[in-house]
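Let us practice reading a record.
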Amino acid sequence: QVQLEESGGGLVQAGGSLQLSCTASGRTFVNHRMAWFRQAPGKEREFVAGISWVAYYADSVRGRFTISRDNAKDMVYLQMNSLKPEDTAVYYCAADPPPYKGSSYDPVYYDYWGQGTQVTVSS
């Protein structure tokens, strides 16, 4: 059974930092494209950052967030710096196995999801 589990969320003041971790189990994810999405109350789930052989970011987080992966450990990380109140959301880890089906930025193309971790940034 494929499972993704996020950790590292919490409450932080604006300007602070958090690192989210995503642990994958059940199968190797070395060839999967991995991504972080987030969903704020009343809003649609939106792309934050993704990684396959390269990393790519939403404009709203580029320069502040860094995605990385450790294939030996089947883990993906999201380092979040200079956090803003508008970054407040539930953050989800997602995985898409090859062959990749569509846009990296669209959550519909990701097969596996974690339960999410809450990130709250106070002003």
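A brief commentary: The mean pLDDT is 95.
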